[in-house]
Design goal:
The protein is an alpha/beta fold. The protein is built from 9 helices and 9 strands. It has a 6-stranded parallel sheet, with helices on both faces. Helix 6 packs across helix 7 and helix 8 packs antiparallel against helix 9. The protein is globular and about 55 Å long. The chain starts with a strand and ends with a strand. The relative contact order is 0.13. Bound molecules: pantoate. The site of pantoate has 10 residues, from strand 2 and helix 6.
């Protein structure tokens, strides 16, 4: 496994593989790797000849009062996990490699970035799109894999790729959950043992809400009831039931539904979702 800390090294690796006619799958990460990330890596391996994983905690997607300074940094463990998955190259750039000379990007997040996470994290998706576009520019993958847990991010990236006609297929990786049902996240490290136990209620509420939607129960009543249950343990940022393609209200044309939520448990922000076909 090659560990490339600068653009020249990764460019060299990628261009060598491309000259050999190999395809490249890319998994962007911010490190703090867990089984969810590793499942994306396995998916990448199944979809291309070579796999590149990036580890870069991107400052431009964090708000002022967010956890950029404390975001878990576990490079040694991450590299060991990636080596065990037989990843071909890991790109671990510095900020200067990604944003040389105050690099600014003309690429902005599109309409799917509106609402949901953007309400409490204004500018977040512009930062995500900026870094992902820059990483795509450097790595030029054929395929890139994003986890479904960050569902709005996944759609925002798909929209960017479509708008810019980038020749990259975007694949979505299923959410990997702890045995308890809690969606795996690097930020779960912030939870205490007691909080971890409480956190599993989030998924239970989402499942109950899904059942209510499938039984055609009144949507606003169902959401209201779910919020009432959730608010016993969490501070709710949003809990929404939307068309999974448009992130807007469900219509007669809706084929796929997304139940999406963001909550705080203590000072830790958790997001989760369930995506399913209209019954
Ligand atoms: O999902 C993440 O970890 C990040 O938003 C990403 C896609 C690596 C961009 O920094």
């Amino acid at each position: 496994m090659q560990v490339c800390s600068n653009n020249q090294q990764i460019l060299h690796a990628v261009s060598t593989w491309k000259a050999q006619g190999k395809t490249i799958a890319f998994v962007p990460t911010m490190g703090g790797l867990h089984a969810g990330h590793l499942s994306l890596v396995h998916q990448a391996k199944a979809n291309a000849d070579k796999v590149v994983v990036s580890i870069f905690v991107n400052p431009t997607q964090f708000g002022k009062n967010e956890d950029f300074d404390h975001y878990p940094k576990t490079l040694e463990q991450d590299l060991t996990k990636l080596e065990a998955c037989q990843v071909d190259a890991v790109f671990t750039p510095s900020k200067e490699q990604i944003y040389p000379n105050g690099y600014t990007s003309h690429v902005k997040a599109g309409s799917l970035a509106q609402g949901l996470c953007s309400k409490s994290r204004p500018g977040h998706f512009d930062g995500v799109v900026q870094v992902v576009h820059r990483l795509f520019e450097i790595i030029t993958p054929n395929v890139a894999i994003f986890g479904q847990k960050d569902y709005q991010q996944l759609l925002v990236i798909r929209q960017m790729v479509e708008t810019l006609s980038l020749p990259i297929s975007i694949l979505s990786g299923d959410i990997v959950r702890e045995q308890s049902g809690l969606a795996m996240s690097t930020r779960n490290q912030y939870l205490s043992v007691d909080e971890k136990e409480t956190a599993l209620k989030l998924y239970q509420v989402l499942i109950q809400l899904k059942q209510a939607v499938l039984k055609n129960q009144d949507l606003s009543v169902a959401i209201h009831n779910s919020k009432a249950t959730l608010s016993q343990d969490f501070k709710i940022e949003y809990l929404s039931v939307f068309d999974a393609n448009t992130l807007k209200s469900i219509t007669d044309n809706t084929s796929k539904i997304a139940i999406l939520c963001a909550v705080f448990l203590g000072s830790t922000r958790l997001i989760d979702n369930i995506i399913f076909n209209q019954g």
